[in-house]
What does this fold into?
Amino acid sequence: MSEITNFRGETVQAQAEPSGDDAVKALIGRVGERVRKARELKGIPRRVLSKASGVSPRYLALLEAGDGNISIGLLQRVAEALDHRIEWLLGEDDPWTSDTLRVAELFRKADGKTRAKVSDILEPRLDLSARRNRIALIGLRGAGKSTLGTLVSAKLGIPFVELNREIEDHAGMPVTEVMAFYGQEGYRRLEAQALSRIIATHDSVILAVAGGIVSEPEVFNSLLGNFHAIWIKASADEHMERVREQGDMRPMAGNPEAMEQLKFILTSRETLYDQARAKLDTTGRDVAQSAQDLAALIARNGFLD
It folds into this structure.
């Protein structure tokens, strides 16, 4: 405490301002508490969150205890693994009591039809014609996006494009090498550029995108605004089996918790995938049946009218 003279000339005790170190400590404590509470509310074990975020269990424990001075990059991974925006962890408002944050979170987690209604109310002049005859298939690897997209595009007489192939053609290398050379950030930048090119050059197209595109808000919002998004989904068991049938053993190799992690990814992304305007469950359906179902869904919703 220190003494100051107020505007009446009186000497009073001044309340000390919190030091920079105190402010940082308070921020770290607030972030740690929110990570812990969000993880517990979702029923996510710390070891599973560690696998999904790439942050060690020990570091997560320190973070939740308010002792981990985590970098922005690692915190972004934790936020994505918890299915929250990073600002939700950092903001001064309590996310469990703030009306603004609560409504924003409810909107983010609402299904596609509810979000569309709210958007029409808040932004009534939204130009829905921007989607034209473009259809985007979203969902995890193994759902059948590429297979079904190829079959249905041929049936309907419109082009089929895989976003990753567009990235590879432009970069001149496979996506695996893009990731190795440029990292996740570089890949996401190329992904955004590829999506913009497809929007500019295709008035009618069926597009298959990588499962993680929903984790990039700006790119995903562009997708939702310019395509009729359809969530191609399947059970975790079928996702894993289809990937293995394709000869890709990476999900299982040396990882006994692969299925648990897959189920966690499905759960954490469910509210994002559910922002699609329609969904198709391919569980227990063969390719021919699922292709018929997808074509019927497109016709029923008037996505190519």
